[in-house]
Design a protein that fits this description.
Radius of gyration: 13 Å
Strand order of the largest sheet: 1-2
Distance between the termini: 30 Å
Number of domains: 1
Largest sheet: 2 strands, antiparallel
CATH topology: Pemi-like Protein 1, Chain: D
Order of helices and strands: EEHEE
CATH architecture: Ribbon
Number of helices: 1
Number of strands: 4
């Protein structure tokens, strides 16, 4: 996947925590605030064949 850096607003990395069957990742504060993510909101994970991922907030109905 090619990314035009002129279209990128923010880049960071987070850790994944795996305990038994529970898998967790931390959403960076900047992204939570920018997307106004609240408790109970859903995120959509899209995995491509080249192993790249897009994560998007699901709009509430």
């Amino acid at each position: 996947m090619k990314i035009n850096m002129d279209d990128v607003e923010y880049v960071t990395e987070t850790s994944v925590t795996i305990r038994g069957s529970r898998r967790r990742t931390t959403v960076p504060k900047y992204i939570v605030e920018k997307l106004d993510i609240k408790d109970g909101d859903k995120l959509r994970w899209i995995l491509f064949k080249d192993n790249s991922i897009i994560i998007a907030k699901v709009k509430r109905e």
